[in-house]
Structure formats: structure tokens, C-alpha cells
Specification:
Elements lengths: L1 H35 L3 H4 L10 H26 L3 H22 L3 H22 L4 H6 L1 H20 L1
Helix pairs in contact: 1-3, 1-4, 3-4, 4-5, 5-7
């Protein structure tokens, strides 16, 4: 009977850690969105014609943050001390650093450096995580595409202003 108890405990721990990942990633993302959302400075910037409406960002980021959290949890479960997990942590730090630099510090040039590093880290994570969990890798594909688009958008705003 002991293996069943151990399996139940392991499943409970895994579920609890998944909840931590979701609450931490999505919560921090929402918090940053509230604290660093677009202001008058951003509204007055010249933006490229492909700039999406502000209303699109919250739902897209919510979905992406859920996928990022699940990918992080999956890597944590199978390779918590791996280079992939380090990359996951690094991309979160860069992700959370971008908004305050862009929106609060009003530094699109510095933000462009951060988002470029973020894109490289996300792409490295996709490559590295395939060794441990292919689903975690796949969960980062939409994120990489969005960050690629956001990098072009950030560069355009920097160039136009």
C-alpha cells in the first residue's frame, strides 16, 4: 500500500507546484500590467501601422503566461536543475524587466536590448527543453512568435521616436 500513498503525495505535490507556477507567472504578469500599463507618454509616441490595439495585449499575455507557467512546471518536474530550467528562469526575469524599462523609465532603446535578449533566451529554451520535455518546448512556440513580433514593434517605436 505504501507506493499508492507515495504516488498520491507526488501527484498532490506536482499539482501544488503547478498552481504556484500559474499564480506566480500570471499574477506577476497581471501585476506588472497594472503597474506599468501604457500611459500618456506611450499614447503620444509615433507607432508603426502594425501596432495592435491596446485591448489585445491583456488577453494575449494572459494566455501566454499560462503556457509559460505550464512549460516551466513541466521542466521543473523532469529537469529542475537543468540548463533549460535556468533559461526558463532567465526569460522570466527578462520578461518582467521589459515593461518597467519601456513603460515606466520611458527607455525604448534599453527595452529593445532587453527584449532581444529575451527572444534569444526563449529560442534557446525551446531548443534546450526538447531534450527533457517536448511539450514544454512546443508551449513556447507562440511565445517566441509573439516576442519576435514585439521585438520588431519595440524596434519600430524606437526608430520612429
Amino acid at each position: 500500500m505504501k507506493p499508492a500513498v507515495k504516488d498520491t503525495r507526488k501527484r498532490s505535490t506536482n499539482l501544488l507546484v503547478l498552481i504556484y507556477f500559474l499564480v506566480g507567472v500570471v499574477g506577476m504578469g497581471w501585476g506588472l500590467g497594472v503597474l506599468t500599463g501604457p500611459d500618456a507618454w506611450y499614447a503620444n509616441l509615433v507607432k508603426p501601422s502594425f501596432n495592435p490595439p491596446n485591448a489585445l495585449f491583456a488577453p494575449v499575455w494572459t494566455l501566454l503566461y499560462i503556457m509559460i507557467a505550464v512549460a516551466g512546471w513541466r521542466i521543473w518536474r523532469c529537469a529542475s536543475r537543468s540548463f533549460a530550467m535556468l533559461l526558463w528562469t532567465m526569460q522570466m526575469a527578462l520578461n518582467w524587466l521589459w515593461s518597467p524599462i519601456f513603460f515606466l523609465a520611458h527607455q525604448p532603446g534599453k527595452a529593445l536590448i532587453i527584449i532581444t535578449l529575451l527572444l534569444m533566451t526563449v529560442l534557446l529554451f525551446i531548443f534546450q527543453s526538447q531534450k527533457h520535455d517536448k511539450m514544454a518546448s512546443w508551449l513556447f512556440i507562440p511565445y517566441a512568435l509573439w516576442i519576435g513580433f514585439a521585438t520588431i514593434l519595440n524596434a519600430s517605436i524606437y526608430w520612429l521616436n
